[in-house]
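Progress note, sequence design subtask.
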């Protein structure tokens, strides 16, 4: 079974369907690259994948450590390079002002974020700047 299918809809837009769930995500080219910017761009989804992978991997560790991570928030900034056009840097701030855990447990969460599958899958030329506010 395929993971997903994508269909080009014209006007620099694609419709992407998750095979198992049927969930649909529309992508659009960004305004700085001839698009309308009315939906996530493909490079926005790369950043979303990194952010959500960090949260998910941290949550697996948090569950094992009996830490309630509910309410953890990320803020993501994507910085594009010009030549070649590609993601140059992804900046992520992970925040949870009321997160409770020992210093050792919080270090485990940070390690999980830095070593999530998406973080490890990105090319070394994509700088990952991660800030933890907890």
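Output:
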């Amino acid at each position: 079974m395929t993971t997903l299918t994508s269909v080009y809809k014209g006007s620099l837009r694609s419709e992407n369907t998750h095979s198992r769930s049927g969930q649909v995500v529309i992508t659009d080219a960004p305004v700085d690259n001839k698009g309308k910017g009315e939906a996530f761009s493909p490079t926005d989804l790369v950043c979303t994948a990194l952010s959500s992978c960090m949260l998910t991997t941290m949550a697996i560790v948090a569950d094992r450590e009996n830490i309630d991570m509910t309410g953890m928030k990320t803020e993501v900034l994507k910085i594009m390079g010009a030549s070649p056009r590609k993601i140059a840097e992804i900046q992520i701030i992970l925040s949870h002002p009321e997160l409770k855990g020992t210093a050792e447990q919080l270090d485990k969460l940070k390690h999980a974020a830095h070593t999530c599958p998406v973080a490890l899958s990105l090319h070394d030329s994509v700088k990952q700047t991660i800030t933890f506010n907890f």
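The mean pLDDT is 97. Work on this subtask will continue into the next period as scheduled.
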